[in-house]
Write a structure and sequence with these properties.
Strand order of the largest sheet: 1-2-3-4-5-6
Protein name: Endocuticle structural protein SgAbd-6
Largest sheet: 6 strands, antiparallel
Radius of gyration: 15 Å
Pfam family, one: Chitin_bind_4
GO molecular function: structural constituent of chitin-based larval cuticle
Keywords: Cuticle, Signal
GO cellular component, one term: chitin-based extracellular matrix
Helix content: 10-25%
Distance between the termini: 31 Å
Shape: flat
Number of helices: 1
Length: 108
């Protein structure tokens, strides 16, 4: 679970690095954190520079060989181009799956 949290933190940091100088003076407008012990966690925040993020992790199949953490969330930000971006993601036993209008689409 720490690896996933680090990965999402790096993704968020890259978004923050791309934003305008407003990030230098941004402050937290809202922060919620819920520790669900070994069953998962949930958090969300919003900053004054237009970044917001929410994430929820749940334990799937506890006590079985298939036990796994599933993490679902989204992050919103305003890019240096002034465009509002939204990234939805799911990370589970099937890997990291990201969705966003700004991402290249895979044709099936």
């Amino acid at each position: 679970m720490a690896g996933l949290t680090l990965l999402f933190g790096l993704i968020l940091a890259s978004f923050c690095a791309c934003s305008s100088n407003a990030a230098d003076t941004a402050h937290i407008l809202r922060y919620d954190n819920e520790n669900l012990d070994t069953n998962g966690y949930a958090f969300s925040f919003e900053t004054s520079d237009g970044i917001s993020r929410e994430e929820r992790a749940t334990l799937k199949n506890p006590g079985t060989p298939e036990e796994a953490i599933a993490v679902q969330g989204s992050v919103n930000w305003v890019g240096p181009d002034g465009v509002h971006y939204k990234l939805n993601y799911l990370a589970d036993e099937n890997g990291f799956q990201a969705q966003g209008e700004h991402l290249p689409q895979v044709e099936h």
